[in-house]
Structure formats: C-alpha cells, structure tokens
C-alpha cells in the first residue's frame, strides 16, 4: 500500500465513520465509491471490503449508543435476523454481476439514498418547527390562576367529539397497524435491508432508521442506536457469505476501518451538538454529487465501443 493511498484512506475513513455515528447509517454508502475511485479497487473487491469498514464502524457506534441507553436489543436482533436471508442472497447475486452494471446500479442507489435523506431532513425541520410552535404557545397561555385566563374559557370544551385531538376519528390521530400487517412490513423491510447489505456492501441504515421509527415506533435517537445493531448483524452475514471468494487488501482495509471507528465515535458525540436536519441535508447534498459522479463514470461502460 503506497503512502499516497494510505494518506487518502485516512480522511475518507474518518468521514464515513463520522456520518455512520451521527446518522445511524448512510455513511457506508461512501465506502464503495471511495474504495473504487480513490483507492483503486475493483467493484467486487470494494463491495466486500466496504462490509469490513461498515462492521467496524457499526461496532464502535453501537458501543457508544449502548452506553447511553439508546439501543433496543430485542428489536434490533429481530430485525437483523429477519434480514439474514436477504443478505445471503444479495452477496451471491453481487458476485455474478458485471462490474460496470454493479457500479451503475450503485449510482442509482445513491440517488435513492439522497432522496430519502432529503425527505428525512424535511420531516426533521417540520418537527423542529412544530416543537418551537408548541413551546411558544405554552409560554403565551396564561396560568390557570391568572385573571386573564378566567376570561378565556377552554375552547376544547366546545369541540365536537370527532374534532377533539384525543378522539379516535380525529384526522391527525394515527391508527395503529394490524399486528399481522405490522409483522409483514417489518419482515419485508428487514429482508430488503439485508439484500442491499449483501449486494452493495452497504449498511442500509438509511432504510433501517425510518423503518424503526415508523413501524416499531422508536424515537429517533433510539432508532439510530438500534439501527447500528441491525447493520452489524447484516454485515457479518454478508461477510460470512463472501468468505474465501477473493483476496482483500487487509492493510488498506485495516487502516480505513480504524479511521471509520474513530469517526464513528466522534459522530456519536455530534448527535448532541448539531441539529440532525443540518447533518442530514449536508450529507444528502454530498451523496447526490457522488451519485452523479459515479453514474458519469459507470454508465458509459455499459455499452463498450
């Protein structure tokens, strides 16, 4: 491994780990294009090597989140176990796909990730505005013992039953999913995440985090911590499937993964210091640029001269 390649691997590994720890996923999608276009590996080597980087980064981030009590072990193990079949199949299919097709498909995946991140950032901004509005309303509401409060009766007493926020038929009140439908949605989502992990060598946290919040009802910080457990289980399955299928540059991957571990630890601290929507929007922009660059390099190779 040349000094130049080693120097390039260090900041890239730090960035990937930083995003993995801060967002609970997403940073791993950078590993494959970095290994291919910056560190000179083949697409098949890169998708296998990326799994090692993702595994190390996930372990480091998981330990930090676990110490803070932000991991739901039963939910994470269940979700990860359901994705092992998809991870196995994805690893097998990836080995049979031509390199140009693999990278072109990866460019499409990056665009999907960018779109999901932008939607996530938008929902986070909306939630932040709603929280600020609620706090402002509470500050303006007079205390029950204040004279002004006596002149302003509670309007909720005059609402129709179906217009009350706590009524089951209120339009803003979410209805719980049927247990069978909920279980089916969890199984399908977990299998899709495993398939992505095995095929592309990515963690799939950009899908896991929304699934854990929407389907299992976990709060965002807990979903981020739990997603790292899911990522770890899927990555280990994919690595076991790929074992013995090709030689890897272990010194390069060891340095790359070590930097990802350091970055993951720092990223975990960022979650308490920077607004989540800022990190998400910035990362979505970076992924979009990377997707366009990857597509520009891979798509022309689909039709050899």
Shape: globular
Percent in helix: over 70%
Low-confidence segments, ≥5 residues, pLDDT <50?
152-174
Main sheet characteristics: none
% residues in beta strands: under 5%
What is the rounded Rg?
Answer: 22 Å
Give me the strand/helix succession. Answer: HHHHHHHHHHHH
Structural class: mainly alpha
Figure out the total of helices: 12
How widely separated are the two ends? 33 Å
How many strand segments?
0
Mean pLDDT across all amino acids: 75
Give a verbal description of the structure.
This protein has 305 residues and is mainly alpha-helical. 72% of the residues lie in helices and 0% in strands. It has twelve helices and no strands. The longest helix has 42 residues, at 99-140. The chain is globular.
SSE blueprint:
Layout: H1 3-23, H2 31-38, H3 43-67, H4 73-82, H5 84-95, H6 99-140, H7 147-150, H8 179-200, H9 205-214, H10 220-242, H11 250-270, H12 276-298
Helix pairs in contact: 1-2, 1-3, 1-11, 2-3, 3-10, 3-11, 4-8, 4-10, 5-8, 5-10, 6-12, 8-9, 8-10, 9-10
